[in-house]
Every structure is written in structure tokens, then in C-alpha cells.
Write a structure and sequence with these properties.
The structure is a homodimer. By secondary structure, chain A is of the alpha+beta class. In chain A, 38% of the residues lie in helices and 17% in strands. Chain A has a single domain, classed as NADH Oxidase (3-Layer(aba) Sandwich). A 4-stranded antiparallel β-sheet of chain A has the order 1-2-4-3, sandwiched between helices. In chain A, strands 5-6 form a two-stranded antiparallel ribbon. In chain A, a hairpin with a 1-residue loop joins β5 and β6. The longest helix of chain A has 19 residues. β5 of chain A pairs parallel with β1 of chain B, so a sheet runs across the interface.
């Protein structure tokens, strides 16, 4: 059995806790093939329901495709700003929420619900389990990138129909994430939305319940 | 900036690639408070859309609650076996798919779509982004547990209505995962469903596309 030592555990947490959602710090330094390959392998070794491995990965380096997505982002984001109340609206408009054009590569992770046939172990009572597997692949990729000192930012402000049109994604494939990826000048110490005062970090102890939902904040 | 060295990167991948979905190898050794606390902190430091931190965590140690869930699993699983064709059905019935009673603790991760109000940065065009955040918390927890030499198994064969009833989860809270957690006698070298020949590990290169969906299996 592969044992993880105390020192190794600390290294793991160092990677996990220094992962950030990156929007502004991308460098133009290219990502070597072997580095990208290790990161994609990490995504592919995510858990998947019934071992169906429902993901596909689209690597985007074509700047014209990124331009098209940026336009889709701008269209959606303009509609969004008006949803926030006065003070929040001003702050919202000042936030940089994506690095689509600046990141050397974009990565799309999808979910193919038909990957291994109609019946999948573990998806029979919860039809969303395949989508959850693809999200696990995103998180594996994100952490692996951090271990390679590469930043990742998840962009979700565009219509999925626009994304599917731009990248010719078939009708029955579900886009899960568009990720901006590249080396960075720096990783922020804290999440940017925490730093600018958008929302505070919650106390994890207030989110823990014991045995049933109503038993909260009690020692076991 | 926290730099991750080559040696540290290798440690990270060692943890990531030795993570397994555990069903059979749970030991009765209790999980110390500080260990559990580090694992839950890792979950809480997952990325979340608009920093909304939509998750709650229910820790289950009550054996009678586990028994109720086991019954819900058995009820659902009996219905499932008949969905598989002849050979697969026999294999399916031979598989152990959960360790609900054996795992010292169960962990439920949920998603509260109303956590920070109706408008959330990044959830405006894709309403599922909050659910995806809670899945990222699951994957962080899973990997952190592995770094602590603790096994995790995601059980998804029961009706969510049963889960909500057993643990008194409010109507508007979405259960994302029920995780069995505990120290283990061993971690399998490969995923169990791969080992028993249920499905093969796919070649990741067959899942990679370049710039558009149709450009596949080509060097950049």
C-alpha cells in the first residue's frame, strides 16, 4: 500500500490551499507538452461513476476561437451587471472575471451521458452522477495545474449555446467547464472575491452538522 | 508566491493517482479530530462560484442512521440489477458497491442554492455552477483523505428522497454526495471496476480534441 508520510501530506495541503481562480496574472510563457500531458492525465484519473470516464477535453490555442468566446462573454456579462444592487453593481463592474484572451490555452471539459451505454453503475438513481464525474475531472486538473505552478480560471459567464456553436460541440454533449490556463506572475494569497470584500470566507464549523441536519455546532 | 518544486509535484501526483473509491477495506480505527478537521477544511477550500461556498457537511457516526441508509441502498440496488444484460447482471450482483455500515463515518455534502442570495457571480448564465462547486468540495475532501491515508467511497445508489428523509435535510437543499470514510487495510492498485473487467481505462489521447470538437487525435 502506498503510504503518505506526514511531510508528504503537508506538501499535498500546500498545493491544495494555494490553488486560486486566476483571471489577471497569465504569462505568455508556453506550457511544455509533458507538463500539459501530466495535467490532462490527472483530469483523466478523476473518479467516475461506474468507471464511465464521461469526459472529453478540448484544448484551445486558436486565438480567433478565444476571440469568439470573449464576445459571448461580453454579451452575457453586460446583461448580468444590472442584476446586482447599487453598491454591488459598481464593485461587480470593477472585477476582472476572466482571462480568455490572455491565457495561452483554454480547456473545455465536457460530459457524454452516452459514453458507455444506457445503464451505468451508480447513475441509476441519480442521473446527474456523470456530470459530477466530469466536475471531479475539472478539480483534479485544477489542482494538478497548481502543482505545476500553472494557474487556472473557470469562466462560466456565457451561454452554453454560444460555447457549443463556437467549438462545434454536438447537441448531446454537455459542456461542464471552460478553463483558462497558463503560467502566472503570481498566485493571490486569498481568493480575489474574498480580498475585495465581495463575500467573506465562512467559518467551516458553522457548516458542519452531526447525524442529522438540525444537529449543528455541537461537539460530538 | 508559493512555488511548488519538482519533488513536491511528484508527491502531489502520488496522492492523486493513489486515490480510490473504497467499498470493502474499511477498518474500525477511529479518525482523530485533527485529521477529520484538516480533511473538512480541504473540502471547504474548494473553488466556489462567486465565492458562495454553497456546501454543508453532515458527519454521520450514528449506526442506526447508517442502517436506515443501508436499507434505502438495498431497496434501490435490487431494482437496478435487472437493468443489466445477462453476463453483466451476474458480475453486477457480485460487486460490493458500498461500505455504509463498515465505514466509521459517513459524510454528506450538500448544496444550498440560496446561500448568498438570488444573484451569484458566475451562476447567472449557468444555474448549475453552485452544484458544481459542491462537487469540487467532494473531490478536495476525497484527495485530502487520501493524503491522510484514509479511504473514501461515494455511494449513489439510493433515492435522494430517502437520504433527505433519513437525515432530515430540508426540501430546498440538494444532496450531492454520501461518502463512506475511514482508514483502510489497503488501497487497490487500480479502480475496482477496471480490475474486475467491468470497463477498461480509456486512452486519454482519444478524448483530447484541438480547438474544435471534430479535430481529434492530431498533433497540434
Amino acid at each position: 500500500m502506498t503510504n503518505i508520510t506526514e511531510d508528504e501530506r503537508k506538501v499535498f495541503y500546500k498545493v491544495l490551499h494555494s490553488r486560486r481562480d486566476v483571471r489577471s496574472e497569465f504569462l505568455q510563457k508556453p506550457i511544455p507538452e509533458d507538463v500539459l500531458s501530466r495535467i490532462l492525465k490527472a483530469a483523466h484519473h478523476a473518479p467516475s461513476v461506474g468507471f464511465m470516464q464521461p469526459w472529453d477535453i478540448i484544448i484551445i490555442e486558436d486565438q480567433s476561437k478565444k476571440e469568439e468566446l470573449k464576445q459571448a462573454f461580453i454579451k452575457s456579462n453586460n446583461k448580468v451587471a444590472d442584476l446586482f444592487e447599487k453598491d454591488k453593481k459598481k464593485l461587480y463592474k470593477s472585477l476582472k472575471l476572466e482571462g480568455i484572451l490572455e491565457a495561452p490555452i483554454g480547456v473545455i471539459i465536457t460530459c457524454d451521458k452516452n459514453r458507455t451505454g444506457p445503464v451505468v453503475i451508480g447513475r441509476t438513481t441519480n442521473p446527474e452522477m456523470d456530470v459530477y464525474s466530469s466536475v471531479c475531472a475539472v478539480q483534479n486538473l485544477w489542482l494538478a495545474a497548481r502543482a505545476e505552478n500553472i494557474g487556472v480560471g473557470w469562466v462560466s459567464i456565457f451561454e452554453n449555446d454560444d460555447l457549443k456553436r463556437i467549438f462545434n460541440i454536438p447537441e448531446d454533449i454537455i459542456p461542464i467547464a471552460y478553463l483558462c490556463m497558463g503560467y502566472v506572475s503570481d498566485f493571490h494569497e486569498k481568493p480575489e472575491l474574498e480580498k475585495v470584500g465581495w463575500l467573506p470566507r465562512m467559518d467551516v464549523n458553522e457548516l458542519i452538522h452531526y447525524n442529522t441536519w438540525e444537529d449543528k455546532n455541537e461537539s460530538k
